Amino acid sequence: SACETIVDSGENLPATLVFVCDEETGGENGIRRLLADHLLSPGDCLIAEPTPSRHPAIGQKGLCRLELEFTGVPAHGSLYPAVGVSAIMEAMELIAYVRSLQKRDFAVNTDLEEILAHSADVLGKEFNIQGVSDILRHLTYNPGTIHGGEKSNVVAEHCILELEMRVPWGCSIPELKSEIMAHAKNATIVLQETHEPSMTDPASTLVTTTCDEVQKVWGGSVFPFVQWAASDARHLRLHGFNVLEYGPGEITSLHAVNERVTIESLEKAALVYRGVMERYMGKDISN
User: Fold this and answer.
1) pTM above 0.90?
2) How far is CA 236 from CA 33, 136, 158, 195, 262, in A?
């Protein structure tokens, strides 16, 4: 709708539109392929991901995803734990250790501290949950899958754990991995994927322009925030793009049954997109 309005007015569209379908699975054949093939030139990029209506997202936590293979010493189950080493129990002990890392604080500069505080407020209002500041400031983890063992009466010789951690600003991913492996003596990393936390300068033209247009459409208090999850933004930032996310959607229904978007938020997002593009065209749209 926003693009159609500009084109129908006889103007050239001041943007390149990119559509990908695999953002949720890593973007190997989507944005990462486009970047690897040099089909996109660095510039300002607005991703139409769902965000709170008055708060564009300018940053995301990092990601450390590990697939670990544990090796135990098999024995008759009736003699465990006196005899044998259970690969499953080794994995469980590592999960317990990773859980303890959630309490660790990581130092950030004053400017980022302020952004994190504002972002925690946004997150708390959107989800109405307690302790949301911990989600942005601390390491969060999810043991997504775990499988192993041979039989109930055999001490498990093999176990595979898929562990995902969302990494806050100030946390060193190489040091995090070293600590984890120091507590997983009988494990090896089979697969891994890591991405550092990233953020676009809140004073950049992209951020200030988008916030101005959101203010015109929605009114109220408008400011950028950082997210707890990840997106294609991290890949674009690594290639020199300024990236911001802003789009319609019901935040509490993301990735849930009956995920949805209201007509009002869709229509108002189109107005914001149109306003941003017209600003980049150099038009005065203050009225």
Assistant:
1) no
2) 11, 21, 38, 12, 28
